[in-house]
Structure formats: structure tokens, C-alpha cells
From TrEMBL:
InterPro entries: GH (IPR017853), Glyco_hydro_5 (IPR001547), Glyco_hydro_5_CS (IPR018087), Glycosyl_hydrolase_5 (IPR050386). It comes from Antiquaquibacter soli. PROSITE patterns: GLYCOSYL_HYDROL_F5. Belongs to the glycosyl hydrolase 5 (cellulase A) family. Residues 82-324 form the Glycoside hydrolase family domain. SUPFAM superfamilies: (Trans)glycosidases (SSF51445). Keywords: Carbohydrate metabolism, Cellulose degradation, Glycosidase, Hydrolase, Polysaccharide degradation. It holds the Pfam family Cellulase. This is Cellulase family glycosylhydrolase.
């Protein structure tokens, strides 16, 4: 099986003339065209996460954030705020911009409490939100991946799934397993004929940390039960399974549970290299199923460019996390905090930090600020994701197709832990006190001097950087001066060739040159 795609993937809108399905280790649409998915996650909309608001301990989970709004606003005004939040945080204008930016799908994180009552019955108001999103996506030609981000009882035991007691009670209490099975039966019943729905992402990041070992068997059993429940109702939609431990531990994938399925991993804050994908590539080869990077981001444009080219060079579709949040440098859209927001944040620890009347005014301004037309648009994130004229390409972000294909560095040596299978001259710009992992910029901050990487090139050495379309780029060395190299178009992007020894640091768009 060839791990590198043999077809050219073009940006194109979704088509709804059939179901997306697995065909061996590839995905195809209803007409049989091979797909390389490119999407964004609609995090925070149906399952709020505290870090996306700038909140810390005390207001991290949905339950905690809801309790904070009730305390600050009162029951009636808090309910009105959440109605406005569901209306404005993701609106049709967001979906139109996602489609226009070149993406083909959205991943929708769902909190079970939005669509399922405590007795298991469906909440129609919650389903109406999903239905509305599907109609917008139909209009703007995007698929929708339904993602159970917060299962009944919680599947992670952390704040990201809204677990009531900070335990993965989905695997500890039989009634939560029963509610989860009913929820997926209800979803399958409602959407079994809907081709805008890309598939069913059964559980987000189940059983992290110590739970990945103690309850692995229960996770595999639940996956089999959910598969049988869905297939009794819906024979057509793609079923998506995530590994344990933040979707990175794939030890449970020892057999194929359903031929029309997809295996999902997530990747954050780690070296973007083939070695980090080895277990996922091996599972694709062994099981003959397609694989998908369903959540990753929260990093610099340099890391984003490199990581997402890594996935595509291995034929792996992806979904970027997330589309929008407050005061961020790492998402396409950043909500500008309203005046007084810092007092709302302070009120988590100090209830006297803001009065009720002031809080009502701040939250009203927040609803207006979260409209996409009022957000700060950050096109450099989209450009990095799609490889379309990125604002900054790191020298260490050259292609992943190996020596002679993506680079030729005669005297190159590997760097331990960072693309070490590519002996291409990667090194730290400044030796001494260098971190083992220089990729932990979760807020998109600039690299510190000790984190900066360069590629040592001698005369005649070259690197290829993959782009959606070749554009003139300017090459800079470790001192910030123009590097002694030539930059030329290549079959997959651009090729940089050294004309003299240099420590190549980065490439930036060159407005002085046209091709």
C-alpha cells in the first residue's frame, strides 16, 4: 500500500450526491472521487471551554462557565445570554467564510446536554441548532462531522467533556453507557439519509492519562456496541473512532469493526515529523482503513504550515482546531474582548470584581463582538493551513518525501527528536540550554532564542517547500539577513538552493519578485 497519495488533491466544495465513505485506506465522496479532507472545528459553540474565554480554574468546564454566568447575570439574563451565544458564535456568515476560505467540512463538537435530557429523551431545541448548521453547510457546500465531544457522564474525566464529577463516568456507570447508546441511535435515526453529514465521530479523546490503561477494554466494547447500534439504523454513514489518551493511543485498534470507518488521531505541541505519525501510518497499513488528523493547532504559523503539510504528504485529511475564540493569535478569527472583560475574568476568583449591572453590559457587548464581521480576521492562519502564500515558512518545514525528493544536503546530520530521520542539517540557531521540545507555543507566541531552529546548507544543497501554488519567497538567515540562496518554482512548490554556506532560518513572501 502506497502511503503517499498518487492523485493531485484540489480545493473543491463538498458534494452531496451520495455519502462519503471509506474505500480501502482512502476516503471517497458519493461520486467516487478521492478526498483529502481540509476542515475546521467549531469548538466552544455547543460545548464551551474555559480557555477559549480566557478563563482559568473555577470556570473551565461548560457547567462551571454556565454557573459563572448565572452568578454574574442572574438566571433570566444568563439564559438570554446563552440563547444569544448560540445565535451569534456560529452564524451563517461564519459558514460562508469557512467555505470561501477553501475548507470542505466542519467538525461539530456536541455536548450531550444540549441534545439529550437526563431521561434520555431528545431536546428538540438542541437538534434545531444542528439542523440549522446542516442547512447552512448545504448552502455553502461543506460537510458536517458530528462529534460527541461531551458524552453522558463524561468520557475523559476532565473539563473538556463536561463530566459532572471530573471522572470518566461513561465507563463507570452503566446508565451513562445506556444514555450514550441511545444518543447515537437518535442521531443515526435523524440523520441517516442526510448526505451533508460526513460521518459520526463517536467519542472525542476518550480515557486520557491513567484511564487509558485501566478501562481500555470498556472503550473497545463500547465502540463495538455503538457500531452495532448505528448500523442497525444507518448502513451508510462513515463511523469515526478516536484512540484513547487524547486520541493518540491506538493500541485498541487491533481489528476492523466496520469496513466503512475512519481512525482519528489528534496532534498538538510536538515535533511535526513522520516519526510522530508512525503508529497511525502502521495502523492504516495493517487494517486497511483511512486515517484522519481530527484536531490540531494552537501553535505558531510556522508549526501549522509544517504540520499540515506533513499530513497531506502522507495522504491524511485534517481538521484544524478551532475556528474562533477570544483574544487569540492561533485561530482564523479572534474575538476582540469587550471593555470590562478583564473584570469578568477576575470575578471567577473575586465575586466583587464586577457588579451585576456591569456584567450585563459586558456580556451584551461580547455577543456583538463574537459576530464574525466584528472579529479580527487573521488570514495568516488560513494561509499556513492551506499552504497558500504563507506569511512565514520555517527552514525546518521542508517537505517530507525524503532525500532526493524533498531535500539534498550533502553534509547534513540528523537532530535528535526533531525530524531525526531526515539528515538535512536541522540544528538550533544558538547552542546551549535548548529544549527537548521547542514546539510548545500554545498561544502562538514567537519562538524564544533558544527554541529557534535553522538548517545548515552548503553550496549546492537544496530544500523543497510544498505550497498550493508557487509564489516568490525571500529567504532569511539566522541573523535576519537575506540568505545566499536561489528561490525557484518546483513541481510541488518552491526549491531553495544555497549559493554559499548559510544557516537558513525562514522564508517570507517577496513582493519584489514576480513569476
Amino acid at each position: 500500500m502506497n502511503p503517499v497519495p498518487t492523485v493531485a488533491f484540489e480545493s473543491r466544495p463538498a458534494s452531496f450526491d451520495g455519502f462519503v465513505r471509506a474505500q480501502g485506506a482512502r476516503l471517497v465522496d458519493g461520486s467516487g472521487r478521492e478526498l483529502l479532507l481540509r476542515g475546521v472545528g467549531l469548538g466552544n459553540w455547543l460545548l464551551p471551554e474555559g480557555y477559549m474565554w480566557g478563563f482559568g480554574p473555577g470556570a473551565e468546564s461548560p457547567r462551571e462557565i454556565e454557573a459563572l454566568t448565572r452568578r454574574l447575570l442572574g438566571e433570566r439574563d444568563a439564559a438570554a445570554f446563552w440563547h444569544g451565544f448560540r445565535t451569534h458564535f456560529v452564524a451563517e456568515a461564519d459558514i460562508a467564510l469557512i467555505a470561501a476560505s477553501g475548507f470542505d467540512h466542519v467538525r461539530l463538537p456536541i455536548n450531550s446536554r444540549v441534545i439529550q435530557a437526563d431521561d434520555g429523551s431528545p431536546i428538540e431545541a438542541g437538534y434545531d441548532l444542528i439542523d440549522r448548521l446542516i442547512e447552512w453547510c448545504r448552502e455553502h457546500r461543506l460537510w458536517v462531522l458530528l462529534d460527541l465531544h461531551g458524552a453522558p457522564g463524561g468520557q475523559t474525566g476532565t473539563n473538556i467533556d463536561d463530566s459532572p464529577n471530573q471522572l470518566p463516568e461513561l465507563f463507570l456507570e452503566p446508565r451513562y453507557r445506556d444514555l450514550t447508546r441511545r444518543l447515537w441511535r437518535d442521531l443515526a435515526t435523524r440523520y441517516r439519509d442526510e448526505t451533508v453529514v460526513l460521518g459520526y465521530d463517536l467519542l472525542n479523546e476518550p480515557l486520557p492519562n491513567e484511564w487509558q490503561h485501566s478501562h481500555a477494554g470498556e472503550l473497545a466494547t463500547l465502540y463495538r456496541e455503538l457500531t452495532a447500534d448505528i448500523r442497525a439504523i444507518d448502513p451508510d454513514h462513515l463511523i469515526v473512532y478516536e484512540g484513547a489518551h487524547w486520541a493518540t493511543n491506538w493500541d485498541l485498534f487491533t481489528e476492523v469493526w466496520d469496513e466503512n470507518s475512519l481512525l482519528q488521531f489528534h496532534k498538538y505541541w510536538s515535533s511535526p515529523d513522520t516519526a510522530s505519525l508512525a503508529a497511525f501510518l502502521e495502523a492504516r497499513e495493517r487494517l486497511g482503513l483511512p486515517i484522519y488528523m481530527g484536531e490540531g493547532g494552537e501553535n505558531t504559523v510556522e508549526w501549522i504550515y509544517t504540520a499540515f503539510r506533513l499530513y497531506e504528504s502522507h495522504g491524511i485529511g485534517w481538521n484544524f482546531w478551532p475556528w474562533k475564540k477570544i483574544a487569540t493569535r492561533t485561530s482564523p478569527a479572534s474575538i476582540v474582548p469587550p471593555v470590562g472583560w478583564e473584570r469578568v475574568v477576575a470575578s471567577i476568583a473575586d465575586p466583587e470584581a464586577i457588579s451585576r449591572e456591569e456584567a450585563r453590559e459586558v456580556f451584551a457587548r461580547l455577543l456583538d463582538a463574537m459576530r464574525i464581521e466584528n472579529c479580527r480576521w487573521q488570514p495568516e492562519i488560513v494561509s499556513a493551513l492551506l499552504g497558500d502564500a504563507p506569511a512565514s515558512i520555517p527552514a525546518w518545514g521542508f517537505g517530507f518525501r525524503g532525500a532526493g525528493e524533498s531535500y539534498s544536503v550533502a553534509g547534513g546530520e540528523p537532530l535528535a527528536g526533531i525530524r531525526e530521520t531526515d539528515a538535512a542539517g536541522i540544528r538550533f540557531a544558538r547552542e546551549g540550554d535548548n529544549p527537548l521540545n521547542p514546539f510548545q507555543q500554545s498561544d502562538g507566541r514567537p519562538y524564544r532564542p533558544e527554541e529557534e531552529l535553522v538548517v545548515r546548507l552548503d553550496r549546492g544543497d537544496w530544500l523543497e517547500f510544498e505550497l498550493d501554488r508557487p509564489v516568490p519567497m525571500r529567504a532569511m538567515d539566522a541573523r535576519g539577513a537575506e540568505a545566499p540562496v536561489t528561490v525557484e518554482p518546483s513541481a510541488r512548490g518552491i526549491r531553495v538552493t544555497a549559493t554559499a554556506p548559510t544557516d537558513l532560518a525562514r522564508l517570507t513572501p517577496d513582493p519584489r519578485t514576480t513569476w
